[in-house]
Every structure is written in C-alpha cells, then in structure tokens.
Amino acid sequence: APPPPPRSFCGKNMLGKRLQDTAETLIIGGGCVGVSLAYHLAKAGQKDVVLLEKSELTAGSTWHAAGLTTYYHPGINLKKIHYHSIKLYEQLEAETGQAVGFHQPGSVRIASTPARVDEMKYQMTRTHWHPTPQFLIGPKKVHELFPLLNMDKVLAGLYTPGDGHIDPYSLTMALAAGARMYGAQIYSSAPVTGLSPTLDGRWDVQTPHGTIQANRIVNATGFWARELGQMIGFEHPTIPVHHQYVVTATVPEVKALKKELPVIRDLEGSYYLRQERDGLLFGPYEREEKMVLQDSWVRDGVPPGFGKELFESDLDRIMDHVEMAMEMVPVLKHADIINIVSGPITYTPDLLPMIGPHQGVRNYWTAIGFGYGVIHAGGVGKFLSDWIMSGEPPYDLIECDPNRYGKWTTVPFLCAKARESYGFNNVVGYPKEERFAGRPTSRVSALYDLLKDKCSMGFHAGWEQPHYFYKPGDDVGYRPSFTRTNWFGPVGRECKLVMEKVGVIDLSPFGKFIVKGKDSHKLLDRLFANTMPKVGLTNISHMLTPRGRVYAEVTITQLAPGEFMLITGSGSELHDLRWIEREAADGSYEVDITNITDSIGVLGVAGPNSRKVLQKLTSEDLSDAAFKFLHCKSIQLAGVHLRAIRISYTGELGWELYVDMPKMAEVYQAIMEAGQEEGIDNFGTYAMASLRLEKGFRGWGAEPADFIGKKALHEIKAQGLVRKLAYLTLDTDNIDPEGNETIWHEGKVNSNT
C-alpha cells in the first residue's frame, strides 16, 4: 500500500496573496517567537524573510498566555534574553504604531523562609555586573510596594523595577506589523505539508499553495514542534503541559489604589499574581503528582484544527495554591472568579528552550520548547537574527542549544522530567543543583553498577558520572546548600589523594569523534587555531568563530596518518559536532566523521603513583623518556587493547585510557587491584574541577594556515586586550564562590568570577 500522505498543520486554504517562490529564511510558526524572529531579520536587512502560519497568528500558546515579563533569571545568560525583550517591548509601540499593552509596575519575589533569603542573597552576588537593577528589600519595603499583602510570613523580597506584563496578542501583532514594515512576508492559513532537503543544503517547503525553496528553515511551531521535526526524522523532546490561571472580577481594594501593583511571586506558594484591570490574576504551578501532561499529543499528535482552543479547567487541582494565595493576599477571599484559563504550554526536560541550528541536517534551526515564550520572544528573535546574519551566536547560550539532547532522550524520560520541572518551578535554586526524575537514562558507562552505591552521581548530557565518593562516617546523599555542605570534606580528601597518591575517575561522558579521509588534515587546519599534531601526538586546540571568539576547546590526537580523534566536553558533544559537520559540508571536504562517544569508555588515572600502578599491567615502557607528555600510544593493559594518552588535566602526572565500553569494567578492576599498595582510590568531577582550577593549566600551539577567525584574532591582538583572565584567592570560612559572582573594587563593579 502507498504510504499515507504527510500530516499537515491543518488550516484554511485561503492565502489572499501569491505564495513567494524562494526565501532566505523561512520561519514556520506564527506565535510571538516566530514573528519576533521575522521582525528582527527583516529589520537587520535580510531580504526574502518568509513566515508561514498554519491558521492565524498567535494560535497555540501565545494567545492565552498570562504575558509576564521580568528581567530576572537565575542563569547569567538568559538574563540577556530577558533584557533585550523588555527593551524591545518598551519602544515597539512607538516604532510600529501598534499598541502592545505593556505595563511595568515592577515585581517582587517573596521570601518567607531562611533558605529563600539565602537564595536571594546568592542571586544578588551575581547581578551587579548586569545592566538591570535588582534589589534585596526588607518587609517594610515589600509592604510599601504591595500594601495588600499579609506580612506575617514575609522575611524579604527581591525587587526588580521594570518588570511587569504585556498583552501577548497585541505584542505579536505589533511584531508582525514591524516585520511587514521592514519587508518580511507573512502568510496565514499556510500549513506546511512536507519538508525536503536538497543536495546543496537548502529546503523545499511544501504547502497546499505551492512549494517555497528556502536557504534555511526555522521550526518555531510551539507545541507542534515534534510533528514538524518528525517530517525530517527528529523526535524533539517537547511536551505540552496544562497551565491554569485565574482571573477575578473587580476587587474594591485594588480599584482604590493610586498606582498599579507590582507582580508578586510567592515562591513557597508556587504561584504568580498580578493586577488585571481592577481585579487580580494569579497562576499556580502544581506539584508533580497533581500537574497534568498532554502526553497523548506526544503519541498521537495535536488534534487537527486545535489552535485557539483551551482545556477544561480544574479548580480542584490548584486549590492548595488558591488557599495559599488567599492567605498571602487576603482580599482574594472575597473576590469573584470570572475566568479560569487552562491552556497548553510547551516544556522541555530541563524547562529551557531549544534555540539554534540542529545537528544532523544542514540549515535546520529550532526556536521551540518555550515555557515562557512572551519574555523570551524579543530576546530570542534578536539572538537568532544576529546569529543568522553574522554566522555566529552573539553570546554564549549553550544551555539552550538544541543539541544538548540526543537519542537517550526518550518519551518516558521527557514525561518524567517535564513533571519534575513544572513542579520545581519555584523551588529554591541551589548551586550544583541535581534533579533525579527519569534517571538513569540509557547513557551509563560500564562502571555505573560498580560505582552507583559508592558515590553521589551527577547528570551530564544524559550520562551518570560520579561527583564525589563516600567513606564510612560521611554524611551521604544529596545535600544542597548555599554554604559548604556534605561534599566539601570528601572532595578535599580526593584532591589530596590525587596530589599525593593515585586516583581513578570515569571520564566516559567526554564527546568523542573520529575524523578521517583524504581531506581530514585540511578540514581540521581550517577549523582549529593550531597546528595539527603529528601521528602519536596530542594537543589542545580551539575552534574560533569568524569574529575570533572561542567556540570550543578540543583535544586532538592523530592516531594514524589522516585519522584524528577529537575529544570535547560532555555538554558540548553535538554542539561541537554540528560545527564540524557544517564546515565539512559547506567546504565539500572528503572526510568521514564518526561519533564514538557511546561506544568508547574513558578512565583517567592521575597522581604521582599513577605510572607505577599502570606499569604493573603493561609491558609498554611508561617512563618519561619513552612516553612523553601529550603523546598517545596503542597498548595492551591487563590484556586489553586500548589507547593511552599522557596528560595532566589535574596538574599531576596523569593518563587517559580509551577502551571499548564492554571492556572498561575489566580494565578498571585490574587497575584498582594493582594499585592497592599505592593507596589507589576513586575520585570524582568535583575534585578534578578543583585541581584544574588551582593549577590554571593553559596551552597554546603554533599558528597554522588560514583558520576560521584568524583575521579577527590578529585585529583583536593589534587593538589590545580589554579583558584578562586572573586567578583570585578568597579567605572565607563557610561560603565559597560558585562562579559569576560580582567582583567589586573600591566600591565599583569591576568584573565577574
């Protein structure tokens, strides 16, 4: 039987104008994110920007959103997205002539527990080097800003001026007006029925009205993202979640106020609340066991015709939060509810969106998975527009890279993590946070079963990897804190182990690629700002962007003539692979690129006694004269063939052993047995990070041919550096820097850690 016709995004077949034949960038999806990208690209001067919307603009999650806007984000990079969004929204009405309904009364995050106060203090240490103001305020100031609060439990607040809310429909229409004003074409009632890549890297985009050939396509389809991805073989890890908010009738006490109330976020009550005309609007985030996933859409797709529909509301499901809101804002007790909105919003496993070009195909970009699309829309549109126009991201946003997920991201994992993330919306955000739902995935090394009960495991790109190990008498388990906690002593013990004896660490999550073929050397010369190592040698090299910024740091070994092994960090695996594959395709290099990450295990053996232990298990001469630093050899160790690289990532004598995953446990057990006299033991990634930081090891190679970013690098050097990396030693009793804290000098913000 013939295959069924491809499923389209159902819509009316009335365009009202002729469909354009070609596009430089074709955006699929007319919510606030997709329309923002069209606006920014057209404003930046790109010609032939096209947006296709299956039904009408805002259909999906945009039209029913609560519209909250905030400068605040616990991460340092997404703060920039929020900042650019708000600055755009402030001037959009004047630019386009379209009202956007933007209110900026500020916002206050309420702290009603000591742990929450600590979290706010922690966030204040990281905020001053950003351009947005943020203040830790006491109960008196909180009550002054929001006089309707019951202050019995309020200990402090985090106040952000300029926060507020915007009408999502009006925002989208203003962005669309701006996009058209600058030359973009927007087609409504234009469902996509098929996507076909061409040999030259472009796309044929099929619609009922004809086919458009696009140089790149952007998936901005909201909760239809999985279905569009499935057209080209992807299973994007996005899932719709039921989110409800409640709108009240006029509240006399609100109407009597002389100015608009700030938005409040009662973090222990897990809800937001803002003024809506003369009433109030509040939306809760239920606990895992009560929240609802629309998982049938993951299995069966979104029902045809769904767009501006809602789910049936369920007040009972959120009643716990309603009662907490009534306790915090007592006027709610007597307020009449006039509307309960229950609609789908899209979640990814970690609650962050998927933004950027996707690995595995050419010129396919995503802007999907937005749980907070309104505050992200403006900044993401600018971020992606800058990237598309310049060929590189304007700043680091790797936590939102779509390639952080892989085949290990199954539907059960997606569902478990979405439940967890929704329920964790307002939990205390500790440093070194771990979340345990859906773990372990299929990505475990051969040592997992041997080590899982001896250590605290961390989650790295789907992998389980030991953070630190327990000893009898230790306080075990996950104990997050803003001060030194139960891992501090064990990590110090492991650092001492590596500095004085010998330790073993599982480094299997490293991203690992083989690049070989006729043009392999030529390709890598183009990609990396370093001379390629000779056969049997290793170096540390950097891929640069066209503007001379570091895109990735990679360890490169030439295993045989024209065959190279590339090693990168676990979180950068597909991020870096995409960059390499793109250059190989664009330059028509004759190479084979293979991702061997899951099939090869890696053991790190480090410390002054490491050579003595390994020498017991091999006939290969491991002396300094025979096996030099940054050399690689194929050896037999404990009867197993593997590759060994002499390296010093901790500042001590060290080795990395690359072994077929099925043989990894055998090699590990042989090493542990052989090292008993030398005091061998395990160590984890916390100790490794501490040792590397204190060593401050950096290596730069000779300058090769015309690599990407070479011209820009020379220009930067000629102009002189404006920033330098420095190491600081801090005297502290119980609180250690985690990174990105503000550095003050003589009363002024100097930099950040």
From TrEMBL:
Q: Where is the FAD dependent oxidoreductase central domain?
A: 391-442
One annotated Gene Ontology cellular component of this protein: mitochondrion
Segments forming domain FAD dependent oxidoreductase: 26-387
Domain of life where this protein originates: Eukaryota
- InterPro entries registered for this protein in UniProt: FAD-dep_OxRdtase, FAD/NAD-bd_sf, FAO_M, GcvT/YgfZ/DmdA, GCVT_N, TrmE/GcvT-like
Which residue intervals define the domain GCVT N-terminal in the entry? 452-703
Q: Which PANTHER family match?
A: AMINOMETHYLTRANSFERASE (PTHR43757), AMINOMETHYLTRANSFERASE, MITOCHONDRIAL (PTHR43757:SF2)
This chain's protein is named Dimethylglycine dehydrogenase
Kindly list the organism's lineage: Eukaryota, Metazoa, Chordata, Craniata, Vertebrata
